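@channel sequence for tomorrow's demo:
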Amino acid sequence: MHSADIDVVFSSQDIVILNKPSGLLMHATQRQEKDTVAAWVAKHYPECVRIGDAGRGGIVHRLDRETSGLVVIARTQEAYNVLKEMFATRTIQKGYYALVWGIPQGDKGVIEKSITAHQGKRRTVEPWSQKEPNTVRDAKTEWRRIMSLGTHYTLLDVAPKTGRMHQIRVHLASIGHPVVCDALYAKKKVCPKELGRLFLHAYRLCIPYKKNTIDIAIPLADDLHRFVESFSP
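structure tokens (generated this afternoon):
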């Protein structure tokens, strides 16, 4: 996918909400990629270039490269500051669709496991761990079962209550149900050829901004929808 595939799903004087396709980086890495969300924002909303922390370009939060879905962009410094504080205080509600391996026990659950960096990845930390406190971040994820797809997969509605890097992927892997096609946390699983990418989609953002509540929800990305539909009788 390319930045040309980005859709604007909400726009105001203060905020823009985009639907990011899978495969697109938020910002350039050391390889200096030119096709990124940040580059697209700079082209279409040039006022955002100087918004936020250095190099952020108005982007308040991030999605992993292979994750598709909703991203909020601030068009003013005031909006950036407000949104950043709301993410920090967990005021903004987020919803994701995740397809996981296996059938989790029960129809819903809560995962509360701290997360730390480990050899270029993230992993959960047990309460009795001797890890230094400043390297460990608390994390909480709620999930609800939507449907099972055959005997191998389950579609979940996931709500991260904190915003740690790779949180959903790490937490679901920690309970034995990693996200399908997760090359980092489910290496021993074979990614279905019909899918070919991480099945994680940020479908909802609910932002109580000023006197209004911006509540945006989008359907599954087309490729993910086709994979789910392939299991229909």
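heads up for whoever presents: The chain has two domains: 1-89, 92-206+216-233.
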